[in-house]
Amino acid sequence: MPNVRSFVVLPSLPDSLKALEFIARNMFWSWNPEFIGLFRRIDSDLWRACGHNPIKLLGTVSQDRLEALAENRGFVSELGRAVEKLKSYLEEPRWFGPGQSGYGLALRQDKSQDVRPLVAYFSAEFGIHECLPVYAGGLGILAGDHLKSASDLGIDMVGVSLLYQAYFRQYLNVDGWQQEVYVESDAYSMPIELVRKKDGQPVTITVEYPGRKVQVRIWSVDVGRVKLYLLDPNIPENTPQDRAITGSIYEGDREMRIRQEILLGIGGMRALTEMGIEPTVCHINEGYAAFCLLERIRQLCSNGGVSFDQAVEAVRAGSIFTVHTPVKAGNDEFPVELMDKYFSDYLPALGINKDEFLSLGKANPRDEKELFKMSILALRLSAYRNGVSKLHGQVSRKMWAGLWPGVPVDEVPITSITNGIHIKSWLSAEMDSLYERYLGPNWAEQSAEESVWKNIDQIPDEEFWRARQRCKENLVVFARRRLKEQIQRRGTYHTELNWAEEVLDPEALTIGFARRFAPYKRGNLLLKDPKRIVKLLTNPDRPLQIIFAGKAHPRDTEGKEIIRQIIHFSSQYQVRRRIVFIEDYDINVARVLVRGVDIWLNNPRRPMEASGTSGMKAAVNGALSMSTLDGWWCEGYKPEIGWAIGSGESYEDAGYQDMVESQAIYNMLENEAVPLFYTRSADNLPRAWIRRAKNSVKWISPRFGTHRMVTEYMNRFYRPASSKWTYLTAENMAGARELAGWKSDMKAAWREIAVSAVNIEVDNGQQRVQLDPKKSQLKVGSQLNVKALVKLGKIRPDDVSVELYHGPVDTWGDIKDGSAVRMNYKETSGQDGEHWFEGVMPCEKSGRRGLALRVLPRHDDIVDPYELGLVLWEGTK
Fold first, then answer.
1. Both 144 and 87 in a single domain?
2. How far is CA 464 from the centre of its chain?
3. Structural domain includes residue 748
4. Strand partners, 642
5. CATH number at residue 829
6. Could you report the per-residue pLDDT of 234-250, keeping only the tens digit for each?
7. Which residues form the domain of 385?
C-alpha cells in the first residue's frame, strides 16, 4: 500500500455565515424547525441529498451559493436569530441554580440543592438524528430522546456509546425480499468532533483484549447542553481485526459482540475517567453496557484500596439498570469459555476468582453449563432496576423472579418507568406552529403539565384539520418520491414511474405501520383475510390506504418473509395504489410517517412489546392509535382517544390468536374508524374524528413525553442513587466498608434466626379473642393483633424488619398481590437473643385472605431489602 497522508478539509464560510458551523455542530438544530429551515434554505435539494447532514451540506455547497447567502440580508438576519436562540438555550439555568424556568418549577419535586447528580448514560445505540447513524431501532431512539430531554431540563448527563463504521441500508429485490447494503460512515462529515488534549492531540484510552491492547479515541456530540461520547478503535495503531470491532451495530458472532460490549462498558468508563468526568450515577440502558459496572468496581479497588465486596456496595448503590426486551434474543449471553478468554487477566484487579466472577452473570452459579448473561450481571450490580412500562415491569418481575428466591413475584425489586418521546423532535412544523399559537410560546418547556394541553380545545377544528391535511400531503409527496427512487433502482419500466406518481390519495384514510419486522410484531396481521382488507382498500366512496415501513434483522428470515408477503399481496390483489412499502426505514422515514398518517397501527403479541413509542409520536401529531393492549398502550388507552385490539387476552394457539385479532381490526375499521373519518359536517370537516384526535393529544402528550420520563428517573433514581454513592465513597469509602462488613456479619449470623412463637388476636371492636384456625371467619372492619417472638441471636432488632405479609389467597393457598406491614419492636424476652414484635393487620376486604410472617435484613444504606438474598418466612429454615 502507498504511504497515504490524510488531512481534513473544512468548509470555507464567509464571515457573516461562520455561525452556521456553530449551529451545525450542536444537535439542538434537529428539534427546532426554524434551524432546519435555515439549512434547507441554503439548498433544499442538496440538503436532502446530504441526508439532512448540515456538516456535509456546508462542505458540499458551492462557494458561489455561500457568497450569495452572505449578501442576503434576510438569511443573515435569520441566522442571527438562530444563533441567539442557541446561545440563550445553552446559558439559561434550568433544573439547578437560581432562575429556573417552567422546567424546574413545574417538574421538580423534593428540591435539594446539594444533590446534583452527574449521570453517565450508557447505551449501545443513540438515535439522535438520521445524519448520525449510530442507532438500529427503538432502543436507540429512546436513548436519543432521553439525552434531549436531559438537555432541555438542565440535568447533568453524558451519553456513552460506540462510533460504528457502517450501517445497513435496506432495499427490496423484484421479489420483495430484503437485501442489505452496508454504507460506510464518514466521521469527519458528521456533526461530531474528536476529543483533544490541550496540545491538540486526540485523547485516547487503552482497552485490553487477550494478548493485546487496543487503542481507542473518543468523539463527542453536542446534544443541546449534554455531551454524547462515541468510542472509536478504527485507527492505524490497531490491527485490522481490532479496527473492525465497531464495524456495525449488533452484527457478528458472540465473540464480536463481547468485544463490542467490553469496549462499550469497560472502555466507556475509562474514557470518562480519562476526560476527568466522574459520574455519581451510571445508568445502563439494556444489558449491553453492563461491563461498565465491573470497571467502576475495578477503579474503586485500585484507587481506594478497598475489597471487591466493599466496592460493589458503592457501585450497586450508584447504578440504574433499565431492562427492555422480554425476548431471549435481546438479552446477550456468553459461554463460560469466552468469558474466561476475555476476563481471566482482568480478575486479579477485581480481587475475585473465576467462580465468583461467573456467579455474577448466572441465575444458578452451580450450573457449569449455564451461559453468562449480561442482564443478570446488570441486575445484580444495580440497586435501581426498571422496566419501561407498567405491564413490562410485571413481565420483568416474573421473568427474573428466580434471582430472588423466597420473594413473592409482586415484590421482586424491579419497578417500572414508562417510556416517552421527545415531543419537539417528532412534532411537525405545522402542529408546532399551531401549539405555539394556542398553547403559548413556552408550551414545550411545560409539556409534562396537563394544564398546558387543555388549551388544545381552543384550536378551531378548521385550523387543526388544515394542519393535519398539510402533513398528510407532505407524506404523500414523500412516499411518491421514495417509491420512484425504489422503482428506478430496480430498473423497471417507465410505466411504473407513472404509477408511482398516482399512488396514495391525500384525502383517504391512511394507516401507518412502521417498525422492526420481528415476527412477534406481526407486520402481516392486517392481510390475514384478503377479501375483507381488499374491500376496505378499494371502496370507491370511503377508501382506506396503508403505508408500511421497517427493516428485518439481516439474519431474521421470518421477518424478511413477512415483508415479502406484503409486497406480493399488494401486487396480487391489485391494490398497489393503496398499499405502499417504503424501503430503508430510518428516523427520517419515521418522522414523516408519524406526522402524516391518520391511524397508527400496532399489533404485537402481548406481552412481548416492552413499551413501544411510535404510537406516542403519532398521537402528539393528531393521529389515533389502534393497538393491542401491550406495552405503553395498556396505560395510554381510553375509548375516546383510539382503539384497543382485544382485551389483553392470552392465547396458547398463535394461529388462532392471529385470526381473532385480525378480525377485531377489520371490525373496528369497518364499523368505527372508517365511518368516523368519512362522516363530515356541512363544511366537510370530520368533527367527531377531530374531537377524538384532540382528546388523544390532551391525554397522551403530558403523560408520555420524555420530560415526564426523565423527571421521574431524576426523582426516583438519580437523586437517591447519587446521594448513596456520595455517602458510601466519602472518607476513603468508609460507608461502603461499613456496609460490606454489616452484610458479611448478617450472612454469617442469619442461620441463627428463627420465629419462635406467633400469637394472633382478633379485635372486632367489642372484644379481643384468640384467632381460632378452625373457625377463621372474620367480619370486615375487624383487625388482627399479632405478636411474634423472634430469635435473633447476635443480630440486633434494629437490623431486621419483621413483617406481616397479607393479601388474597388463591386456590393453592398462596398469597397473591400481597402487601407488607412492618411490625414494631416491643421488648426483649427473658431468653437470650429473643425479642417480641407487635403488628396490626386490618381486615378491610371480604373474601379468602392470607397472612404470613417474615423477617428481612434492614439497613439504612441498602436500597431494597432483598439484595442480600436473606428472607426468613415463618415455618421455613
1. no
2. 31
3. no
4. 625
5. 2.60.40
6. 999 999 999 999 999 99
7. 102-419+713-729
